[in-house]
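ok new one. same drill as before - structure tokens go in, u give me an amino acid for every spot. 984 of them this time. try not to just spam alanines like last time pls lmao
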């Protein structure tokens, strides 16, 4: 269930609801105005006055004792009271209460709280009493009072008192004392007192009168008059003298202080000192003075009873405090939190607590009047803003103080005695659109922004540190408690403090203690210094920091900030290119630049375009800003002696400088989150590394390589099987140089982190009989030849004269030749009887290579043949078989014996060997190229004599781009072919 805003639970008094301008004077009662009927209704109307007055313990005791004494009871009573409490401590309010009681007598019995006073006094009714009032700030002895209003003129305090008590007859009794300005003695004073009637005489603001009349001698006579009047009151049964002496100590001269001490000693000796308000009762006084309460909701002890909605709010806040007892000040009574919140509702306890704990010791602070003045302005503003929808706070908390209101600020500065704090408040808290706390709230996440947490925290710090006065600091536990509210994430308070610390100009921080003061802090120095940092120094620092972050790692030395393609080497090795931050991903031309420099090397086409990996900044704005900040801190450090920084500021400077340098480094990591490289589709592909920070890897280079390894774009090495699977079909022998180059020229191949790993791959392939590593002699033989043997990777070299061949080809050169076929030539012979013919036998091994043969055994099915293959035909005609045998291998030929002229019909001719040359020309559609190779060319690829000549013609109406032409040339070079193409 949502908590109700305070302004829907309690109602401020009418003038506060209407937002009328308020002045501290409205909370300062003028007894003269009350007596003359000129005071505001809250003070003039006695019933209304008592409804809004909380009878504190001391006020109850004073009023009861006065009533008792006026009723003629002298036991446990005093006739003289000295209200010598702090300026603004509620003294005149107490005098007004006594005046209303005495003036109205029994009529006051029915007023709110009077029954409590009567019970305390032990009497049934307030006696009707003669009253006299003297207010030092109002009475002027030079001009006097009266004379032009139908009343006789009075020029002395005793003349004024005499006239109020006994009219013109009383004034006549002291006429001589008036003329000679001499205080009357006790005998005269007793003649002034009304017969058979109680008498109450009230003095207020005496020091003002004393100070003004010191030179005329009246101040000394006033002392004598008070002395005589006090002695008289002590001797009477139903007379009371109540005196309020002090003025503000800040306004006293040395003579004032001397007279003050003299009067105080007199009254303390003859009477009783009184303190009106106690700290524990301040909250109830304020509630009764600022809000309208149903008299039926006031308890027997005079305290306001809260509604169910108010109690729910108090309980919810108290539960938060209990849950976070370890994070709030130890002095707060957590176990009685509900009672504390209920006692101050609708204010948060810290609102009143800060005045009691800290502000009351300020020289200018007027305890009751000062608090009431500030809170009245506060309540008026908060009430109007609440109904306008700006705030829905369940309590009026310290952080919601309307410091953006000039009238309220002026009242605060008046109490602090330091109007120069205006700049600190408006710059750091509120009062301007660009005040730091306001700006931070607007930029924060929803939970903090809606709670106005930065402004609340800053306002709490201001009140708790009270402008550098007594205990000029706000602790973190105090801040937490002051902004405490249900559902508050306490971690957000620390976040707000950190943001304020890094932004505010007048906020000082030392050991988690915060203070607003007049002295600009390091942030202000930073802001001023940042404006003077030159752009070229910023760019230089940014580039320097980027180079530090991209330190050489994993054998890769980055290429920094190229502007032309020929600044990037074209080599078969993985190359990391770090673009300058100006070429960021925010610039649409950046990818075009990368595309161009990937494919070009100066005026030529780049061969090893797949070798390039690009590191690209997301934006350069944050980098420049962090560099500017670091440079500014460094400048301040270099001038710290001239700036006269104190030890605390020097420590903060060291911390801020270290943090700025760390932030700049982290900004490089965060900014260079984009990697670009040539994809398998031969277009530039961008990889977003996500949220990057320095703890993710030892170096930025390592981070990039780790990600590319995960994606399969970079490999530590490849297996020998990879080479076999990706063997170029046109190659019988593949040079090691071409093998190496393929990994950095073709995007179909993975990029190798270490080019030397190819040597390891070849060595492993040789030992596992997957490939052979060979050299090629001038006669075409392989020398050296490594296959199925252990070979060190260091023995492998990248060269156009060294090759790898497939296992199938290698085996042809390592198996012992074995006779598998005998070929006899000629195959068919026509011969006459008795004639001779020599036959030859040629041996072939298992790979159809010629092999020397010996010990051939010849035989014939007709005629004779010797061991040299010489055949002699016999006389019998016919077809006979010549057989040559070596071991188990044999071959055959045929011989026909016939006489000339009587030739038998020739035997059917042997199968023709067919044509020796085949050629074809024609157009092959691109989609059938692979089928053409498989079904046509592959039949002849295993033998000798296949020669392929290709004539390629490409015609495109839209034209062939320079890029495609260069790619074609590169592809031809990769295949070991000429890259000369004709264009027109």
């Amino acid at each position: 269930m949502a908590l109700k805003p305070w302004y829907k639970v309690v109602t401020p008094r009418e003038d506060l609801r209407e937002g009328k301008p308020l002045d501290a004077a409205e909370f300062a009662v003028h007894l003269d105005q009350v007596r003359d009927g000129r005071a505001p209704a809250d003070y003039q109307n006695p019933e209304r006055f008592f409804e809004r007055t909380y009878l504190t313990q001391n006020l109850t005791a004073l009023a009861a004792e006065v009533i008792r004494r006026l009723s003629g009871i002298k036991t446990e009573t005093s006739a003289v009271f000295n209200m010598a409490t702090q300026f603004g401590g509620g003294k005149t309010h107490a005098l007004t209460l006594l005046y209303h009681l005495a003036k109205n007598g029994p009529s006051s019995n029915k007023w709110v709280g009077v029954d409590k006073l009567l019970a305390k006094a032990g009497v049934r009714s307030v006696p009707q009493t003669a009253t006299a009032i003297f207010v030092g700030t109002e009475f002027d002895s030079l001009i006097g009072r009266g004379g032009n209003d139908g009343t006789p003129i009075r020029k002395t305090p005793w003349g004024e008192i005499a006239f109020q008590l006994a009219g013109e007859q009383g004034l006549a009794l002291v006429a001589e004392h008036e003329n000679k300005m001499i205080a009357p003695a006790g005998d005269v004073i007793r003649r002034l007192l009304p017969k058979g009637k109680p008498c109450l005489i009230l003095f207020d603001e005496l020091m003002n009168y004393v100070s003004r009349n010191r030179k005329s001698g009246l101040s000394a006579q006033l002392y004598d008059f008070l002395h005589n009047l006090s002695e008289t009151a002590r001797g009477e049964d139903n007379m009371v003298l109540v005196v309020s002496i002090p003025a503000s100590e800040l306004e006293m001269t040395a003579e004032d202080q001397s007279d003050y001490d003299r009067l105080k000693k007199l009254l303390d000796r003859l009477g009783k000192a009184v303190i009106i308000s106690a700290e524990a009762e301040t909250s109830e006084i304020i509630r009764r003075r600022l809000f309208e309460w149903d008299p039926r909701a006031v308890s027997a002890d005079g305290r306001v009873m809260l509604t169910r909605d108010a109690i729910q709010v108090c309980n919810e806040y108290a539960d938060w405090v209990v849950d976070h007892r370890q994070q709030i000040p130890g002095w707060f009574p957590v176990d009685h939190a509900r009672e504390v919140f209920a006692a101050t509702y609708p204010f948060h306890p810290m609102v009143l607590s800060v005045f009691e704990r800290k502000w009351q010791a300020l020289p200018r602070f007027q305890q009751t009047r000062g608090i009431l003045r500030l809170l009245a302005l506060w309540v008026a503003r908060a009430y109007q803003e609440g109904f306008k929808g700006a705030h829905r706070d369940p309590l009026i908390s310290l952080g919601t103080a309307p410091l953006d209101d000039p009238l309220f600020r002026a009242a605060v500065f008046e109490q602090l005695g330091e109007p120069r704090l205006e700049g600190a408040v408006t710059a750091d808290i509120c009062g301007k659109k660009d005040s730091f706390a306001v700006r931070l709230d607007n930029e924060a996440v929803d939970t903090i922004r809606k709670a106005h947490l930065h402004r609340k925290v800053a306002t709490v710090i201001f009140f708790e540190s009270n402008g550098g006065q007594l205990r000029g600091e706000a602790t973190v536990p105090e801040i937490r408690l002051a902004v405490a509210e249900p559902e508050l994430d306490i971690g957000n308070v620390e976040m707000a403090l950190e943001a304020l610390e890094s932004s505010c100009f007048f906020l000082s921080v030392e050991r988690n203690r915060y203070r607003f003061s007049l002295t600009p802090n390091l942030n202000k120095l930073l802001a001023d210094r940042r404006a003077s940092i030159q752009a070229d120094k910023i760019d230089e620092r940014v580039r320097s920091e980027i180079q530090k972050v991209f330190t050489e790692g994993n054998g890769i030395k980055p290429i920094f900030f190229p502007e032309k393609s020929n600044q990037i080497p074209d080599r078969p090795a993985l190359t990391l290119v770090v673009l300058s931050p100006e070429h960021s991903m925010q610039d649409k031309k950046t990818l075009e630049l990368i595309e161009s420099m990937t494919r070009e090397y100066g005026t030529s086409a780049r061969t090893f375009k797949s070798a390039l990996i690009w590191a690209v900044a997301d934006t350069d704005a944050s980098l420049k800003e962090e560099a500017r900040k670091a440079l500014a801190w460094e400048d301040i450090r270099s001038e710290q002696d001239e700036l006269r920084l104190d030890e605390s500021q020097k420590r903060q400077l060291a911390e801020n400088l270290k943090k700025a340098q760390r932030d700049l480094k982290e900004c490089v990591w965060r900014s260079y989150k984009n990697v670009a490289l040539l994809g398998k589709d031969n277009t530039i592909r961008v990889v977003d590394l996500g949220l990057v920070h320095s703890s993710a890897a030892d170096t930025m280079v390592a981070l990039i390589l780790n990600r590319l390894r995960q994606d399969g774009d970079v490999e530590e090495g490849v297996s020998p099987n990879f080479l076999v699977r990706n063997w170029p079909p046109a190659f019988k022998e593949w040079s090691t140089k071409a093998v190496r180059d393929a990994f950095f020229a073709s995007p179909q191949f993975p990029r190798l982190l270490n080019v030397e790993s190819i040597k390891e791959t070849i060595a492993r392939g040789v030992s596992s009989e997957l490939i052979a590593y060979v050299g090629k002699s001038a006669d075409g033989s392989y020398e050296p030849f490594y296959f199925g043997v252990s070979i060190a990777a260091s023995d492998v070299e990248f060269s156009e004269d060294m090759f790898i061949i497939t296992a199938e080809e290698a085996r042809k050169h390592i198996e012992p030749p074995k006779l598998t076929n005998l070929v006899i030539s000629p195959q068919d012979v026509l011969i006459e009887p008795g004639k001779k013919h020599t036959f030859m036998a040629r041996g072939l091994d298992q790979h159809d290579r010629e092999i020397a043969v010996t010990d051939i055994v010849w035989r014939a099915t007709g005629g004779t043949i010797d061991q040299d293959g010489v055949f002699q035909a016999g006389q019998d005609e016919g077809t006979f078989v010549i057989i040559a045998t070596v071991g188990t291998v044999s071959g055959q030929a045929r011989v026909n014996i016939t006489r000339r002229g009587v030739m038998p019909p020739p035997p059917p001719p042997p199968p023709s060997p067919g044509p020796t040359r085949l050629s074809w020309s024609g157009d092959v559609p691109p989609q059938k190229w692979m089928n053409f190779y498989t079904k046509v060319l592959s039949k002849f690829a295993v033998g000798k004599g296949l020669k392929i000549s290709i004539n390629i013609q490409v015609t495109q109406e839209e034209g062939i781009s320079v890029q495609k032409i260069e790619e074609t040339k590169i592809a031809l070079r990769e295949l070991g072919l000429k890259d000369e193409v004709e264009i027109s």
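The first strand starts at residue 11 and ends at 12. and btw Residues 716-811 form one domain.
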